[in-house]
Amino acid sequence: MASDRQVLIMEAAVRVIARSGVRGLRVEQLAAEAGVSTALIYYHFKDRSGLIRRTLDFVSDRAVAYTDEAIARADDARGELEQMLLTELQDTPGVRENSTAWGELRASAVFESDDLRDALARSTRSWVTDVAEAIRAVRPDANAEDAAERLTALVEGLSERWLSGSLALERARELLRGGIAVELDAG
Amino acid sequence: MASDRQVLIMEAAVRVIARSGVRGLRVEQLAAEAGVSTALIYYHFKDRSGLIRRTLDFVSDRAVAYTDEAIARADDARGELEQMLLTELQDTPGVRENSTAWGELRASAVFESDDLRDALARSTRSWVTDVAEAIRAVRPDANAEDAAERLTALVEGLSERWLSGSLALERARELLRGGIAVELDAG
DNA sequence: GTCTATAGGAAGATAGAC
DNA sequence: GTCTATCTTCCTATAGAC
User: Which residues in range 13-72 of chain B are in contact with strand C, contact meaning CB within 7 A of any of its atoms?
Assistant: First the structure.
């Protein structure tokens, strides 16, 4: 249900959000980035919060795509799990953009409508479920749901620390690998 | 360096930020909350961003105070560690306010000056160090630094999920308790 | 130090032509 | 579907009296 034009605008929105935050996104600035007029943005997305809401969906779809690619590169169940989580902690432009935007959307949802919060909760749940499944593939006896929920929350916490300059990327990745090991060791 | 009036205003600012976010903070609204005029706020804090910067220092000082109180209530080393971390996941007005503001600080630092980022990194580091020490008191042989960094990042991740409506508070607390157990079990 | 009143400027949103 | 032009609202910040 997203036209080419809409995709173009949402791609630009992710770039702007990654650069200035949801809070810093100005419709006029986005229009310039996308090479369209502000009126067109309102035409396609109704209003600013509609735009943000649609962009959130867009970002989480892209994250799913990244994750799928990452899984494809793994050659065993353990590697698949590591890939699923470590993918979010990578300094390639696309991933960094996506992670930054995701963190922003999460943070701004604290003050936004139930609509945005629900969408975010659904995306989160779906990610957790996928990770739980990957954990079961490695350790069928584990409490996979809890471990998955912790590991994904850990990824978000580490990612936010990385992006806010409190933690070096390589250190964040090392901590995450350790966290995976710890969860898989535990009953 | 903070007069009574300034403290009054910053306390009100934390309440407003917890309710509307840093981006949602309106100077006029803050003036009403604090029971002063907008002009007085500019008189004391120069401008909006000066106010926010000072308020964020105020928040991290308060977080340290909460943690100290929590530690005092514990009766053994393990309880001390749990208190230090679980304190941040509590739905009392003061803590929720502080957690919300802290999350806002972290999220907005992604796009702010090095000054703010450095202050945040220092506060984070100091928290991690305290937690690492508490871990060593329970398990002297543990890799306390890594565990502390993961557990505090986990707290932030869970807290953000709670505040953004993706996770029930009691579930977040349960996951955190589990996380502490898992880290203490591991070598 | 503190207030009232207001200047001045963004930024979201829309009207109307093409 | 898309643009140019503009309206209106809202908000930061200051001037000036007390």
Answer: 35-40, 43-44
- DSSP letters, A124-158, are HHHHHHHHHHHHHHH-TTS-HHHHHHHHHHHHHHH
Contacts of B109 in chain A (CB under 8 A): 164-165
**CA-to-C1' distance for B89 and D5, Å?**
51
pLDDT 10s per residue in chain B (187 long)? 899 999 999 999 999 999 999 989 999 999 999 999 999 999 999 999 999 999 989 998 998 898 889 899 999 999 999 999 999 999 998 899 999 999 998 998 999 888 889 989 999 999 999 999 999 999 998 899 999 999 999 999 999 999 999 999 999 999 999 999 999 987 6
pTM: predicted TM-score of the whole model, two decimal places? 0.96
Residue nearest to nucleotide D10 (CA to C1'): B26
Burial zone of B113 (CB within 10 Å; 0-12 exposed, 13-18 middle, 19+ buried): exposed
CB B78 within 8 A of CB B43: no
Q: How many Cα atoms sit within 13 Å of B177 on the Cβ side? A: 8
Contacts of residue B166 in chain A, CB cutoff 8 Å?
A: 106, 117, 120-121, 124-125
Residue A81 in contact with residue A180, Cβ under 8 Å? Answer: yes
Token pair for B77: 């080393």
Cβ contacts of B143 on chain A, cutoff 8 Å:
178
Domain extents in chain A: 56-185
Instruction: Determine the CATH number of domain A56-185.
Output: 1.10.357.10
Write down the architecture of domain B4-185 according to CATH: Orthogonal Bundle (1.10)
How many Cβ atoms are within 10 Å of A56's Cβ, its own excluded?
26
Q: CA–CA separation, A96 vs A90, rounded Å?
A: 7
- The DSSP result for B135-185, as a single string, is HHHH-TTS-HHHHHHHHHHHHHHHHHHHHTTSS-HHHHHHHHHHHHHHHHH
CA distance B11 to A180: 40
B28 touches strand D (CB under 7 A): yes
